[in-house]
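User: I'll paste a sequence; please echo it back and then give the predicted structure.

Assistant: Echoing your sequence first, then the prediction.
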Amino acid sequence: MREIETGGQDTVILGTAGGQHELSAEIQRDVDRVAAVVTAGFRGRDWKQLADELYLYAYKTLHTAMRDSYKLMQLVASSPTPLVLSTDERSALHSNFEDRAVIATMTISEAMSTLPNSLRKGGYNPAANPGKSGKHKSLASFFVGRCGLVFPRVFYGWRRERTDRFVAAANEHMRGWIISGVLRQTAEESAFLEDSVPDEVTKLYSTLTDMIADLKPRNRAVWRMTLEGYSRGEIAEELGIKLGDVDNALYTFRTRVKALRRDGKLPVPPTVEAEWERSRQLDAATNGAAR
């Protein structure tokens, strides 16, 4: 049996067998709202409004946390699933709004699906759980805490699904004139028909193919689509990534290839060099005639 006594406008005193705990009016309203939606069986306008408020608060909080690795690690500190992020993943979460939006939505959905059962069992009980600082936790903070518990599991699922999607895209787009595409030169495929391809060209082709196959799934998909003639915009749209991510994948790999060529570790066969020179002369003649 508990007695409720108004202790001024901002506090409520709860007398219990375990002693007295002061709750602010705001926290008491949260307690009362929880009691109301539990009684209503999590149906009706009150539950919808409460769920919408929790969603909005958690969405903003998760977005902020994902931009700051320290805040994110604080959020997931109590999760039974450790969160391990690569440098690339930290950078992506910091800079990619779309990725944060998807992950935040998935995390909130997962946490919301188990919230009713938790509230039925008295999971939100600020009077009995004053917290480490002695400050009672609001229902919104309580829900964000539940989001933190499930975040690592949701993130790993999102990463796995995303990686699988990139792998599928990379495997789908296997063809393309790889030498001209990677080395960014104009070359005529007719000059290297299958029946007359020199061994040195075949070796270069195989080397570049292997290098692309060793890329991370997203970058591998970007390159294979590039070699099939897709535009940067088309690649970004199909893979669901930013145009800047496409440019970065292209630039990083081309820079690596240029470095290998400069160091003499990736020689370009004379056959290819001759074809490039022929193409340059043809382009120059065509442009000159156009003037």
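The chain has twelve helices and three strands. Residues 1-20, 185-194 have pLDDT under 50 and may be disordered.
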